[in-house]
Amino acid sequence: MSEDYRPDGHAGGPYAETEPGAATPVALPRLGFVGTLRWTWRQLTSMRVALMLLMLLAVVAVPGSVLPQRPQDPAAVARYLADNPGLAPWLDRLGFFDVYASVWFSAVYILLFVSLVGCIVPRTRVHLRAVRARPPRTPRRFDRFPARGSAVVDAAPEEVVGAARRSLTGSVGLLPRFRVDDAVEAGGARTVAAERGYLRESGNLLFHLALLGILVSVATGQMLHYRGQALVVEGRGFANAVTDYDTFEAGTAFDPRSLVPFTLTLDEFTAEFTTDAAASPRDFVADVTVTEPGAEESVTSIRVNHPLTVGGAKVYLMGNGYAPELTVHDAAGELAFAGTVPFVPEDAQYLSRGVVKVPDVSTGEQVGLVGYLLPTAEVTESGARSVYPQPFDPLLVLTVWSGDLGLDDGVPQNVYELETTEMTQVLEEDGTPTTILVGLGETVELPGGLGTLTWDGLPRFMAVDLRYDPALPWILAFSIAALVGLSVSLFTPRRRLWLRVTEQDGRTVVDGAALARGDDLGLDGELDRVMDAVRALDGR
To answer: Which intervals hold domain ResB-like (predicted)?
Structure first.
């Protein structure tokens, strides 16, 4: 049969000579649609691609920690849009203000999930077959192996095989060191084949299964979780309902009916500070009464880093401050406002800022009071300041506004800010803002004949953060499993060992060899232990 040649004179190749001086290319088989799908699947389910997708997932999550996110802080997103009118609208269209619900983040997440499943399933099947298989048969020659040994003993071959078996099958904890199989070769020589290290692949599979479990747990937690913040004043309570939270955000699969309807009442809040000038905080304790459905009231406490677990959720103590109890009568003497107003601390001495919004009752004039609470006030010619966070000499320093508060516009307002667009500040004759100073228990006249203000009490408040995420225990469990699997995979050696036992001149000759996958400094020692067990037969 004649042979085809390429034009360069070498046999074979993509050219066949059909006519003298003419060469036509050989038609190579096309991959086709099914072949392309098969190639794509193999690439997607390779370990290399899985690692690349894992790194890509970490990269695409970065914008979620750099840019404000609409589910967590819609006000910050609105400010960013206003401050960056050129770039921000494009970022919004691309989903950068809700990264974890964006199409591109979900695509990477799903691809990583599919890649891990497609990688784990076939490897698991191969691993199970390998675990059930017998150790590889003994090679004919040992001279090419990195670890070799030999011994000559006065013992029967059966005794040598038994001693080798006992040395190889000794357990490490609950697991045997080697899987051992012995046989008789055609020439009558006895052989022992041993293998260990399949736990290495088991650890590798455990690591990837745990990683898959973490992905599923995180996704489940994002769908079912909820988180809310609330401010509770001493003597008052809080109910676990969406409408009772100051801020609330939840997953896409969250059902408000799943909230456990418990109540929490703040009985007393205790704050301790050092007595030096720094007034560093020593302890914050919130004594609360909790009532759960079908259970009696229970009295407990919440501390920083010691959350309360109730209704399947954890309640964290996030902040505290003062909420002055105020009463305002309008110019006609009608009660216009009565209640507590939280003042938010701004420094270590608990200098706190707050806003009092007084709707109109009979005069048609609405009043806004903006100012500061000084727990321990020190008033000098240069101004007033707080010198200690405890309320030893409390003082309110307020400025007064009158006009339309915008409460009837139907637009939500920040309770800690005063909308002054339709309001006028009360001024002195020289044009400076009118400032009123109010001590605890005092009643003062509001300037401009707007009414009176009485400071009745100074209860404290606590700010709590309630979090519910059913996936957290699973994430912890899978994280531990991943760490265990990775450790087993890294530190379990993969070794194979063989012995050939023959009789020569009335004595038993034992030849041994060992092989490891990769560099293994303990391989020679492993073989030496087996050979030492065989040599010990001479010293019985």
So the answer is: 47-528
Quick one: 412 and 428 in the same domain? yes
Is there a domain that residue 210 lies in? no
342 and 317 within one domain: no
- Quote the crossing angle between the two packed helices 103-132 and 32-44, to the nearest 10°: 80
Q: Which of 498, 533, 490 is nearest to 183 (CA)?
A: 498
Sheet strands (E) in 440-536: 443-446, 451-457, 460-468, 495-504, 507-516
**Structural domain of 282:** 221-322+463-480
d(CA 436, CA 449): 13
The tally of domains found in the chain comes to: 5
- Kindly state whether residues 233 and 318 are assigned to the same domain: yes
Q: Contact 239/258 with Cβ under 8 angstroms? A: no
How high is the pLDDT of residue 171?
60
* H-run or E-run covering 184: strand 179-184
- Could you read off the pLDDT of 465-507 as tens digits, one per residue? 999 999 999 999 999 999 999 999 888 888 999 999 999 888 8
Alpha-carbon gap, residue 232 to 271, rounded angstroms:
15
The pTM of this model reads 0.70
The residue assigned the tokens 């450790």 is 487
Alpha helices by DSSP H, listed for 169-323, are 198-224
Backbone angles phi, psi at 144, to 5 degrees: -95, 0
Mean pLDDT, range 54-62, rounded to an integer: 90
Query: Is residue 485 in a domain?
Result: no
Give CA–CA dist 516/523, Å, rounded.
Answer: 7
Please indicate, yes or no, whether residues 307 and 236 belong to a single structural domain of this protein: yes
Which pLDDT tens digit goes with each residue over 4-34?
434 444 444 444 445 555 567 777 777 788 8
